[in-house]
Design a protein that fits this description.
9 helices, alpha+beta, three-stranded antiparallel β-sheet, 259 residues
């Protein structure tokens, strides 16, 4: 398909037959990102649909992975953006057709120093209960002032179950050290020897009832077979094929299993 010819026809048609009423959008005939100017000779008023189609054609017009290709595919992505003064036309099928291109463009635009997070890292301070994003070159300064590497999502304090000292906001451990963990083994377990009441047992039974029956069972339609040397699990309908090769039902391999 000659995308350039179609693009030129849309532009020339609008230059000869300008829209006199209704919603329009200004379009740079020679794209601004490719050096086009803001002067009247390089601008044409298009309908929202025509504007969308023109940017679609520009995204398809240039050689894959070229500088112009990246620029035009990025510009086409921006056609999804709206504002209080813009009412964008959007064609989901055309957008879908260029979805893979968008992925390539975004991957390239977020590489290295072009990524907004490049050279940055998170640190946190438990005394201040504060997270802060800093430059990597500031790392040593913050560490020396009591900050730690990482980010705390929820400031919930955890205390050691043995010595009751603050472990860490980020840690999910129950103990502050290996010594406390060993000591906990000698302490009485308050949960030991506890039993469910009959009412709880009945409730749990009702929750599980039927969940492992028929096709809900993960083993449904499978059987174990062995050939005297090893055992494997197969679908039941496959057994006749294996039986002809000397396999038989069962998982346990016995010493007097026939070869």
């Amino acid at each position: 398909m000659n995308y350039k010819r179609i693009y030129t026809e849309i532009i020339e048609n609008r230059l000869k037959n300008p829209i006199t009423e209704g919603y329009t959008e200004n379009h740079h005939i020679n794209p601004k990102s490719l050096g086009g100017l803001d002067n009247p000779d390089n601008l044409v008023k298009l309908s929202a649909r025509e504007h969308f189609l023109c940017h679609y054609l520009l995204a398809k017009m240039y050689k894959y992975n070229s500088f112009n290709w990246y620029k035009m595919n990025h510009a086409f992505m921006m056609m999804k953006c709206e504002s209080t003064t813009q009412s964008r036309y959007f064609n989901s099928r055309l957008y879908e057709s260029l979805k893979e291109n968008f992925s390539v463009v975004m991957r390239n635009s977020q590489k290295g120093k072009k990524n907004s997070q490049y050279g940055k890292m998170w640190v946190y301070n438990t005394d201040k209960e504060e997270n802060r994003k800093i430059g990597k070159n500031e790392k040593n300064k913050y560490i020396s002032n009591g900050w730690e590497l990482g980010r705390v999502i929820k400031w919930t304090k955890r205390y050691c179950e043995v010595c009751n000292s603050l472990i860490c906001y980020k840690s999910l451990s129950k103990f502050c050290s290996t010594e406390c963990k060993k000591e906990s083994l000698s302490l009485p377990n308050t949960n030991r020897n506890r039993k469910h009441t009959e009412k709880t047992k009945q409730y749990l039974s009702l929750l599980k009832k039927g969940t492992g029956m028929g096709k809900n069972n993960s083993q449904y339609g499978t059987i174990w077979i062995n050939n005297g040397l090893k055992a494997i699990k197969i679908q039941k309908e496959e057994f006749s094929e294996y039986e002809s090769l000397g396999w038989f039902k069962g998982r346990k391999i016995l010493e007097n299993t026939p070869p």
